[in-house]
Amino acid sequence: MACNKVSQKYISAIQRSGLSIYDPIDKNNKQFWIPTHLLEIILNEALRGTSFEGLPLRTRSKVLKEKVCIALGYPVPTTFKRTKPRFPGQCFDTYIQKSNNLQIWNEEISMDRRYVLIRVTDDNIISQVKVVTGNTLAPFDKTGALTSKYQACIVLGKFTTELVTKKDTTTLQSFVNSSYTVQSNTSPTNPPRDGELIPIGTLYEKLRTLVGYSFPDDGSDQERNRGANLHRLICSELGYSSFHDKGQFPDIPHQLLEVKLQTSPTIDLGLVCPNSPQKLKNIQIQGEPVCHSDVRYAIFYATITKGIVQLTNFFMTTGKHFFDRFVQFKGNVINRKIQIPLPPTFFSL
Q1: DSSP state, 190?
Q2: Which domain holds residue 75?
Q3: Residue 167: which of 315, 318, 298 has the closest Cα?
Q4: What is the pLDDT of residues 247-259, one digit of tens each?
Q5: Pairwise CA distance, residues 33 & 203, whole Å
Q6: Is residue 259, in this structure, part of any structural domain at all?
Q7: pLDDT above 90 coverage of the chain, percent
Q8: pTM of the prediction?
Q9: Number of domains in the chain
């Protein structure tokens, strides 16, 4: 879709105006307000074929915003403000979509806002841009529910490894076995058993040796793959002969061990706080229920340089004492998101 003369008229007018992307424009302003169908044409022309290969997520987001500003005739700001929407002047937000699962954080769908959905290929190349209003998206939101997600923050200390608590919770202490050795035929996805839980202090000593280890990065948007690489290393270090992951909590049920790989200070904690007394579903030991607070957390911090992930810090804690070391965002604030499954034909509509 070539950028036509009508579209160029808007771009040129904005360039001459001195307006920034943060200056509000009345939707009836025929000089500066870009109609939705033309906004889609302009952004497709400017963005299709752009590669994000090798860019970290935050850099990718910044590069995208810069390209959008240039495409529409706006000057690129020195820093991008955390406004809602992110582009107030034309009332739209941008979303990079490798899948058909659209996630909107901490707010409901706005009926009159524009949503710029940017489809990228598996090779991280922009293939298509779709611009719709909230009215178009709303029918795809079947629940209207905001999914809650707790978060915390890592502040690195002077030590590269830290054992936050030296003992397991009272519930687990009767089930741990300091002399237990993982057998070759044991799967990490097996349920925990009495006498087969390695004490938290021993887990710490085994896993702290991974600090300094490095492995190739699987791509800027492949956090799951990075996590899987770390998960494999941990399984091997603990004595498991194979790696299995059922995508359940905790990551290694046999040891009641949750694994976190952090390349930024923000820790995503899911729907339940680590220190919650809420019982885990389908997990018991000798008929005794296990709570979220009993789970052990292995948290690794890493840097990514020139395509290499290097583990730099390690923390070991129980869920019960998680917030003895890590700060929950703004006390009890929860980040929430709407998850909207887009139809397979959405980008061809």
Answers
A1: S
A2: 5-142+340-348
A3: 318
A4: 789 999 999 999 9
A5: 59
A6: yes
A7: 65
A8: 0.62
A9: 2
Q: Which residues of 156-165 are buried (b: 16+ CB within 10 A; e: fewer)?
A: eeeeebbbbb
Structure tokens at 329: 């965002």
Helix (H) or strand (E) holding 233: helix 223-238
Q: What is the pLDDT at residue 320?
A: 97
Identify whether 147 is part of a domain.
no
Q: What are phi and psi of 200, to 5 degrees?
A: -60, -35
Across 197-216, b (16+ Cβ under 10 Å) vs e yields bbbbbbbbebbbebbeeeee
Residue found by looking up tokens 């500003």 in the block:
69
Q: Which amino acid appears at position 50 of this protein?
A: T
Higher pLDDT, 69 or 141: 69
Is 339's pLDDT higher than 50?
Answer: yes
Residues 176, 64 within the same domain: no
Tokens of 74: 């706006």
Q: How would DSSP label each residue in 105-167?
A: ESSPPPTTSEEEEEEE-TTSBEEEEEEEEHHHHGGG-SS-PPEEEEEEE----S-SEEES-SS
CB distance 8 to 71 below 8 Å: no
Say what the pLDDT of residue 220 is: 47
Task: Give me the sign of the Cα torsion angle 10, 16, 19, 20.
Answer: positive
- Assign 3-state DSSP to the chain and report helix, strand, coil percentages, each to 5: 25, 30, 45
Amino acid at 337: K
Q: Same domain, yes or no, for 304 and 263?
A: yes
Residues 108 and 179 in one domain: no
Statement: residue 218 has pLDDT above 70? no
What is the C-alpha separation between 238 and 252, in angstroms, rounded? 11
Cα 118 from Cα 64, distance rounded (Å): 10
Residue 189 near residue 282, CB atoms below 8 Å: no
My answer on whether 184 and 298 are in the same domain is yes
